[in-house]
Batch of 3 targets.
Target 1
Amino acid sequence: MSVRLAHIGIAVRSIVDARIFYEEVLGLKVEKIEEIASEGVRVALLPFPGGEIELLEALDPDTPVGRFVAKHGEGLHHISFDVPDVRKAILAGIEHGVETVGEAPRPGAEGREIAFFHPLFTHGVLIEVAGPKNDAPVSHVHEQD
Ligand code: ZN
């Protein structure tokens, strides 16, 4: 399976504060900031050749990222890889007793399917896999029903 680094997700208390290091010291640039209401998170994307830094700020303390920051403080939250087929990756995980977090696959940005592998099974880091962009109408999602 060919994988590619998609992004490195870093949980922060404040994107406004955190972006200063990545922009002023590393010379990256926030390309876009978006709120993903379903995940309770505001995301800032700072691309670089071969990947992106994804700063994650909780919209509410009672969200996955909010709880993460309360428990661990700011820090590495997940690493995301582009994979050709998320469902295949999930099945490979099942074969090896690797559990996912939450619903898998589930819809991500840009019509992608995404899944998260639990850190308990990945040697300590939450690993996200994201399928190809899909600009087709969302109706195809129901084919599996
Ligand atoms: Zn991510």
Target 2
Amino acid sequence: MKTFYITTAIDYVNGSPHLGHAYEKVLTDVIARFRRMMGDEVYFLTGTDEHGQKIQQSARARGVEPQAFVDQIAPEFQQLCARLGISNDDFIRTTEPRHQRVVSQLLQQLFDKGEIYRAEYQGYYSTRQEQFLQEKDRNEDGTWPEIFGEVTQITESNYFFKLGAYQQWLIDHIKSHPDFIFPRYRAKQVLEFLSEPLNDLCISRPKDRLAWGIPLPFDPDFVTYVWFDALTNYYSAVADKPGLWPASFHVIGKDILVPPHAVYWPIMLQACGLAAPQSILAHGWWSINGAKMSKSTGNFVDPIEFVDQFGVDALRYFLIREMSVGQDSDFSMEQFLVRYNSELANNLGNLVNRTLNMTNRFADASIPSPGELGEAEKSLQQAWSQTREEVLPLFEKFQFNMGLEKALQFVTATNAYIEQRAPWKLGKSEAPADQALLRTSLATMAEALRLGATLLQAVTPGSVDKIRGVLGYTATADWPSELNWDYRLSGNPVAKECILFPRPEKKP
Ligand code: MSP
């Protein structure tokens, strides 16, 4: 079985991490955890993109050397991973020697094969985007769109990679590999881009204009241009680990699908004699309160502050529940609080509280064995079979938002079951039939809670561990069999109480 090798984009370290960075890591983590739970061997890579003009400029603005600057910011991204409970196996920084070595090797190999050549280049250059622009990039009135920042005309000698030579190969590859790009409709966008002749890719910058990069091994007066350096991280991190390449999934935002990941990267690999990644998953973008996130206008969510305030699982749950993978979504405190209160605190949290509370009151804090099952139990069990059958395929297809919705519907059904059985009434009766039904209902609610929680494991792993802990349960490593309804908790001691999702202290 091939290792499921999954990566995120590597983040620029010219500023602190934001919600978009957090989302991508959480989404990738949920996929990685789910694949591990399904029995795959998983290798999960994330990291930071530390070279280039923007970083050189940000360092200069702070009056420090670029290396000192990136050494200050990169740990913030590593801490973000830790705070978000990201289960990455490795974290690569493009300033590490292990990365630079592989970039140099690949460049030399392509140069030796004649895939890289030197030529004069004249064009309009955007410093902000670190790219030469084309006439078609202009606004209708001839000006340059704001995203390019200051645009200047420059001529310089540079090195080029023969991208154009691989255009037909890439078109064929995309057409014959329908799973190469997810969601599938985005493949159209790539093919559209490929319907125009591909220009060769400028892969260098003269050192006197950009010093902060990896030197070209065949001409030390130049450094590599951002994409050749950055994309190679996916391979450099595992080049010495047999069995990992090609990557199973590159998870990235929609802005860097075309051309970098869907065009440059597969062609670079093909030219080097390496296999293309199996799949590229392009997710949508978050806006905040309906507008683009921006630190300067204050329309910004600091993921770490958010976790400090609401807990990591509340953020993970919201990000995954709210966004349909591939589509854009909006983040607002109102919407967050609606989901937090109605789905986490009042639904799941309430089920935990009731289960503990009643098991303490009526069964000496020990989960009873069930007696004969009545209609209510059978129908809840039926609801569970259906939930399990529906949720797994949704998770397989990255439709986590819908899978979570169904998992939470099962939690709602369990709360409704409790209302129907009303153990607090049964507890007042001494009739043996009522006592038997009381035991069955306590056993059933604990079992349903265990099962519902199991479905949430990839998304809210910490809370699921807590729930198991208060039910006196340690899960096996066989996740699919954890989904079997078998009353395995009978006789377990339960905790007195557990507040999983406390009421927010203040409304921010
Ligand atoms: N360094 C490049 C990627 C190189 S990958 C070989 C880069 N860095 S980035 O920091 O600008 O973005 C990192 C990731 O965060 C990208 O996948 C990007 O799409 C994602 N996001 C940035 N802002 C985002 C939102 N507002 N919403 C969701 N994801 C967003 O690009």
Target 3
Amino acid sequence: MKTAPQTLDEFMAVALAMENEAVDRYTEFADMMETHNNGDVAAMFRTMAGYETKHARQIMDQMGWQSAPAVPRKIVCWPGYESPEAAPIDDVHYLMQPYHALQLALAAEQRAEAFFGQLAGMTTNDSVRAAALEMQAEEAEHVALVQAWMAKVPQPDSDWSDDPDPPRYID
Ligand code: ZN
């Protein structure tokens, strides 16, 4: 991010873009896991996508938007190429267990939380700061939720990625 959003509209456009990207990514993961008959993990990613969808809808309602506005180019400059809340696709493994899926989600939610915190510190606009702090608090809730979930699922063995019957790909 080069420039902090100057107005609440700009800020909320950034926040919405982030949530929508998170929805897309979690849904993409869920689809991938379904392809590999990994139903448990697919369900987990769908639930995360559901949280982010709710969050995105909340922003739209709050702003009275019918569709997502374009984000000013000068602002959208994520730390990497991807939005902080989008878990990297390379980290997905077809044999991954719920615990791994949650690890990915945890990292994404923590990045989102840090991002909004950083933004709150950068902005000189009071309404943007207030909105950024609110988003940060909501992401912190997602973090806590994922952590609570992680405490309930079994921890994977070290040989979790050994496949006795590896998939064969036919071109
Ligand atoms: Zn989130």
